[in-house]
Amino acid sequence: MARPSEAVFIGVDVGTRGVRACALDRNAVVVDQTERSLAPPRGDGGVSEQDPETWWQGLVGAARELAGRIGSQSVTALAVDSTSGTLVVTAVNGQPLRPALLYNDRRATAAAEAIARVAPAASGAHGASSSLAKLRHLGERGELTGAGHALHATDWLTGRLIGKQGVTDENNALKMGYDPVQRDWPDWLGKMVPVELLPEVVEPGSRLGKLEPRAAAELGLPAGVGVHAGTTDSIAAFLATGTERRGEAVTSLGSTLALKVISESPVFAPEHGVYSHRLGQRWLPGGASNSGGAVLLQYFTPNELTALTPYLDPETPTGLDYLPLPAIGERFPDNDPHLAPRIEPIPADRAAFLQGLLEGIAAIEARGYRRLAEVGAEYPERVHTAGGGAGNPAWTRIREQQLGVPVASAGSAEAACGAARLAMGPVT
Fold first, then answer.
1. Which residue from 211, 215, 260, 263 is spatially nearest to 236, judged by alpha carbons?
2. pLDDT tens across 309-327, in order?
3. pLDDT band with cut points at 50, 70 and 90 for residue 281
4. For residues 54 and 44, what is the distance between their CA atoms, to the nearest angstrom?
5. Is the dihedral of CA 217, 222, 227, 233 positive or negative?
6. pLDDT tens-digit profile of 112-136?
7. What is the DSSP letter of 339?
8. N or C: which end of the chain has fewer CB within 10 A?
9. Of all residues in the chain, what percent are helix, strand and coil, respectively (each to 5)?
């Protein structure tokens, strides 16, 4: 536990099924962590929605518990990360007008086709999973009446902390059509959506203000605590690892599978789901697959995953050749909204079934890094792992076989700890 005289920075990672909070000291050493579960999203097939108030209550619960353990007076600042591509449309006062459309909602197919006819090839707004496509979809359905802000999950939560909505960060803004090279909203967006709904864009880690009094009271923190702009979950997971060298990469093994490689220049290939985030003076080309831990939880409980792991045999492949997607549709390395999962046959041996799924996810990861290399990024010399899957040694070995490079567990594997780094200020 930190002494009250020590400065502590809190990061909160808000997912669709849980919230994690992490406290770091000035040397980026983890002081304490906690987590809270959330009620699962609503929807079936291509529909995926969640009440933003669910996120807020999870954030409050996790941050309040953490602050109580480390001493609220030691908390200097905080920042939030959340899922990329999730859209929250609010009134001018910040009240959501409807449930949020989550990152994997696939109803915006027609809107995505309209965007594809206008947007430059390098734009991060391509595809039905983009927040811009979701916003246009709602506009086509007449659901933007009374709207004042088009926000991402991170934006809305951060805005509620400071009592003012209308700001996003450069990483979340990418899927709304923001141009990270010119660092501005491009003119063509005016043909797609009401531009007056678009938020101001700032660098991740920028100080936005202080906790507004009501939020401070809910979180059990002093009102003078600073609030900094956050980022997406995959970028936060990258920051948590402390990875800095060119040619190194980070795979985030959470509900979904996200890949990032350090590069000196941006790489864009939206036809393959490849985009680049700006982070200080560096670029992070990468992509995010719908595959990942969410697929495993469709077939196994967390306790089963732990119990079966010792029975996995990475040196003897199952040959099951699965394509483990949670539903129809994929973003990267194959950007195909109609791509169907392939999870048959299912063997009676539960350990063999689990290993087959892990092999399939590892194959997607390897294909993802090959795809990044094909379009101009470097193939990694080493892959660091963040997220819940980082601690599975059998899965690590399976991934090393597929990738052909060393795989290491990150020193800090939680996106919340990456968000806490942003609470210290922008990354240089």
1. 260
2. 999 999 999 999 999 999 9
3. confident
4. 19
5. negative
6. 999 999 999 889 899 898 999 999 9
7. P
8. C
9. 35, 25, 40
Antiparallel, parallel or unpaired: β 200-202 and 149-152: unpaired
Which amino acid is it at 76? Answer: T
Task: Report whether the peptide linkage leading into residue 345 is cis, meaning its omega lies within 30 degrees of zero.
Answer: yes
Q: Which residue has the higher pLDDT, 44 or 97?
A: 97
Q: Global pTM?
A: 0.84
Tokens of 304: 């089963």
Query: What is the C-alpha separation between 150 and 167, in angstroms, rounded?
Result: 10
Q: Would you state the structure tokens that stand for residue 159, as one six-digit string?
A: 């805005």
Compute the Cα dihedral for 352, 370, 152, 149 and give only its sign: negative
Q: Which two tokens stand for residue 137?
A: 């979809």
The per-residue DSSP string of 341-404 comes to PB-----S-HHHHHHHHHHHHHHHHHHHHHHHHHTTSPPPSEEEEESGGGG-HHHHHHHHHHHS
Concatenating the DSSP letter of every residue in 12-37 gives: EEE-SSEEEEEEE-TT--EEEEEEEE
pLDDT at 157: 98
CA dist 30 and 24 (Å) reads 5
Q: What phi-psi label fits residue 46: left (phi over 0), alpha (psi between -120 and 50 degrees) or beta?
A: alpha
Phi and psi at residue 353, to the nearest 5°: -65, -45
Secondary structure (3-state) at 340 = coil
Residue 302 has pLDDT above 50, yes or no: yes
